[in-house]
């Protein structure tokens, strides 16, 4: 991390963790403050995860194996798999639980209630003071005393769960009292075996607007650091997430069987209004994607109509549940797959680059990709009318601004829509949101343009008919080229024994890093300029080949 050295003298003096260890404890609070300022500065211009970073700017570092986990992240099954493993190991592992009582929205679930209950008691506050004193004297403390302390903790303190799993629970401690925290970490270094240190922090700490509204400030876009005004992206209309949220409310108002499920993504998925209007049919299952999907399967098996709102990247975690619990049973679960394609400012981990590739091979699934907002609503409705699982995958942000009709009409399943008949012999097959960019190119090249709508089932009749009357095909999608919708076209042509030049445009075989959605699209060659350059270059080559072949014949 580098910053101008006059603004962050301590931070700039650190090259590696060893430098940090050499820094006197007395300087750590100032370092934490510099870190905050650095975060405010960098996130305010580029956007990104924010409030949690502020709250953890004081967590220390030492030479043991240290894992830091949030109370939200602790709701994931994977965390318990790891704790279950760790508790049985002799390793000198320190798990630091950074508990700010928040996931992105309020943390939910039995575990979170358990902490809250345990932490609110008077007995507990008293014991906590005692526990702190005792730890200061470690390791001089007698084994007997340690045992009785643990026993006491086990009865009333939030540590019982961890203790039973074989971790020594210590805490909770104030994560913003750096001196005490460092002392604590030093003492902990002397303990053997797996330890869990419960640290309480405040999300957004040190930046007033974020402390006041940690939900909004979990991951703001660019903002003005002084006023705390978040700079809104220019919008042409509702985001796809909002179109989804409105659709779900409309459906729920008309059909009492509709259930909305989110794995801890109420705000991002557009479910705030639904959660308020239909609290008894709204389920935030915490960061538990696998459970979200199997829970939906269970509800669907009993005649309810669950809708799982999930980001493309997070569905990756529930792949087996999707195959075994939903698709294999052919259960009518609707998946509203948000952030499909390139997401921009959440970075490489959040890109929705792979869903078409990993979904297309699953039997029973219907997969749709809307090209605009109204089509998104109609596709969601179509999905809800089917007797098996269906997925509508839509991108981050706003569409082209097509008015969304209140009326809902089911689309014919597996039917594409010809948008333009061209005379040049070139056909562009667009899957989803890139249709708009493809339209201009089609006009310029006098190409046929098709809004494919369905990735599965593919409109095979139409594609084969187009292949018969065109000389080359280009597929366009916002998904990895490998295994995506273009691959489906290639498979179809090959199976039919048709040899036709096919250019598949999509996300190249590389991870796309943090940026704006526009810069991500440009990096993948999928912005208007990139698409038209690739298509024009390729089409010029094909035309040459075709002319040569015709001349030679
Ligand atoms: C598998 C997965 N699901 C959902 C998310 C979205 N997400 C990012 S941070 C977050 C909340 C995490 O809460 P916590 O672990 O308590 O950390 P905090 O931000 O409060 O420090 C969620 C749900 C994610 N990043 N990964």
List the helices and strands and how they pair.
Elements: H1 9-12, H2 17-22, H3 28-46, H4 51-56, E1 65-70, H5 77-86, E2 93-99, H6 110-120, H7 122-136, H8 143-156, H9 160-164, E3 168-174, H10 178-188, E4 195-200, H11 208-212, E5 223-224, E6 229-230, H12 240-254, E7 258-262, H13 272-277, E8 282-284, H14 289-301, E9 305-311, H15 312-315, H16 319-327, E10 334-338, H17 355-359, E11 366-368, H18 373-385, E12 390-393, E13 417-420, E14 426-431, H19 435-445, E15 448-451, E16 454-456, H20 460-469, E17 472-480, H21 485-495, E18 502-507, H22 517-523, H23 528-552
Parallel strand pairs: 1-2, 2-4, 3-4, 7-8, 7-9, 9-10, 10-12, 11-12, 14-15, 14-17, 17-18
Antiparallel strand pairs: 5-6, 11-16, 13-15
Report on the structure:
This protein has 553 residues and is an alpha/beta fold. The chain folds into three domains: 152 residues, Rossmann fold (3-Layer(aba) Sandwich), CATH 3.40.50; 154 residues, 3-Layer(aba) Sandwich (Rossmann fold), CATH 3.40.50; 136 residues, Rossmann fold (3-Layer(aba) Sandwich), CATH 3.40.50. It is 42% helix and 16% strand. The chain has 23 helices and 18 strands. The strands form four sheets. It has a seven-stranded mixed sheet with strand order 8-7-9-10-12-11-16, with helices on both faces. Strands 13-15-14-17-18 form a five-stranded mixed sheet, sandwiched between helices. Strands 1-2-4-3 form a four-stranded parallel sheet. The mean pLDDT is 90. The site of thiamine diphosphate has 17 residues, from loops. Thiamine diphosphate binds next to loops.
